[in-house]
Amino acid sequence: MKIITILLLCCFCFSVFSQHNSVNDKLVIAHRGASGYLPEHSMAAKAMSYAMGADYIEQDVVMSKDGQLLILHDHYLDRVTNVAEVYPNKKRSDGRYYAIDFTLAEIQSLLMTEGFVVKNGKQEAIYPNRFPLWKSKFTVHTLADEIELIQGLNKSTGKQVGIYPEIKSPAFHLQQGKDISLAVLNELKRFGYDNLDDKIFVQSFDPTELKRIKQHLMPKLNMELKLVQLIAMTSWQETLVYHNGTSTPYNYDWMLETNAMEKIATYANGIGPWKPMLINTKMNQQKPKSNGLLEAAHQAGLVVHPYTFRADINRIPKYAQNFDELLHIYYYDIGVDGIFTDFPDKAVQFLQKNKDKRH
Ligand code: G3P
Ligand code: CA
């Protein structure tokens, strides 16, 4: 998308949406940008989330064949680009198109769109009521492009919006010969992020890699950033452990025990759990209560930033009547410190309406 379009969009958003939130110290983290409105991780979605008043904007980072840091949620290209049409012969035996098999120039020649799945040979949008597939023009950009956008907006607006990069599948990248964590940290340092006071959280699902970052990479680079341990269900196979040519899914079960929080606090500053992990799910459709994980995290000095809050039809859990009630349950009844949301405008407006509340 042309930079002029992004800037026009910013001007439009500034006139329509509210200003920076940061009320009650509760954070709004724009999940892949304002991805409820524009294709995830597009520059336009990032500019829109900035103008909506997000405190932090999220970057999922993967690596290209030529070692460039790309903003993409998957280390595959096929869910959000036309790679299958442009490079039909570059898929691996599992049928997927891996970003790491393509150069940045090849990737930037592709069109990017809303996430889709292919059913019976036809593309179907994962979120049918979001931005339409293949409309307008979006492309994949780099971590440097995005930091320049956010830092540029910080300069021109006088605000201080933070970044929230996630190092995606570091074990996979290492197994493919690429040290993505080292590359990300070097890039962050180049842009001036190097100490605990900087407006940045670095997140990963991989505890082994987070420990390596904390204990080896950051000291070696003379930097110290806040780290967040993302927590997955083991069944998602989010993190693979490679050993002697085979891989097995990392077992996250220990992280859901309250006594895990002290262990995590030895190498991280916060946790990013899937939001149901914080509540007592046995209560079914009644208003849920904390299951104790949040209190244990706070006791250990960790901030708690659950994911992902979506206002789309059928994405609001049955125990909440609407999106505002869902936000109330997590921000105030349970007491989280921030949330990842595809709809940053709604969370900013909710916090402004409730700015006198405390938890
Ligand atoms: O990183 C927080 C949240 O984004 C985790 O889920 O899969 O969207 O990266 P995912
Ligand atoms: Ca993420």
Automatic annotation (TrEMBL):
It holds the Pfam family GDPD. Its EC number is 3.1.4.46. Residues 1-18 form the signal peptide. It catalyses: a sn-glycero-3-phosphodiester + H2O = an alcohol + sn-glycerol 3-phosphate + H(+). Keywords: Glycerol metabolism, Hydrolase, Signal. NCBIfam families: PRK11143.1. GO terms for molecular function: glycerophosphodiester phosphodiesterase activity. InterPro entries: GP_PDE_dom, PLC-like_Pdiesterase_TIM-brl. SUPFAM superfamilies: PLC-like phosphodiesterases (SSF51695). Belongs to the glycerophosphoryl diester phosphodiesterase family. This is glycerophosphodiester phosphodiesterase.
